[in-house]
Amino acid sequence: MLRMALPTGRILKDAERFLASAGFPPVENLSQTRKLMVPSQCGRLEYLLVKPVDSPLYVEQGVAELGVSGKDVLMELAPDILEPLDLGFARCRMVVAGRPEIRRSLDNTLSPVRVATKYPRVARLHFEKLGVPSVILKLSGSVEIGAVLGLSHYIVDIVETGTTLRENGLVVHEEVAQCSARFVVNRAAFYSHLSEIGAILEAFKSATEKAHV
Fold this sequence. Notes:
Elements: E1 2-7, H1 12-21, E2 37-39, E3 45-50, H2 55-60, E4 66-70, H3 71-77, E5 82-86, E6 92-98, H4 102-106, E7 113-117, H5 120-130, E8 134-138, H6 144-148, E9 154-159, H7 163-167, E10 171-179, E11 181-185, H8 187-192, H9 194-211
Parallel strand pairs: 1-3, 1-4, 7-8, 7-9
Antiparallel strand pairs: 2-3, 4-11, 5-11, 6-9, 6-10
């Protein structure tokens, strides 16, 4: 039996539906159980329920051979793991957002821009790529308030519909990346369990293709 790290939170319900469609339903509802480890009905997988930011770490360290992780988390952590498949659900965008007038107010200044975010690595690399000096302010809660109250010029965050931005008077200035849930695999496990993981990967590919027909 292979172990798969699954992130709790917004991805979990979609992940559970996907696993069922691929032929690996859990023995009980993952969104409602208080257990941390739940086997699949077929007995080929054991699901390890962890915080989203921890899922890639469990896979990287080999505690779980397999995992599901949001692309936003993978971009931020840059773990040394394989990412063989875009699962196609939990789609969102990583964006730079701020007040509508902020870009004009910064056009003629050489001072670093202040950026509030839960993704300091992603934000730093993005502004470095643009050649724009920046001061990255890591927040743990709602980052929108940082731009609204002037703590930062911009925020870097994920958006799905953009409703929260609009309701707080913010707009998207740039798109950093398209994000979605990804199937991830421990490097060593991929080769030591090549046949098993290959079969699971093919089942996941088939389920992904059917979902987009």
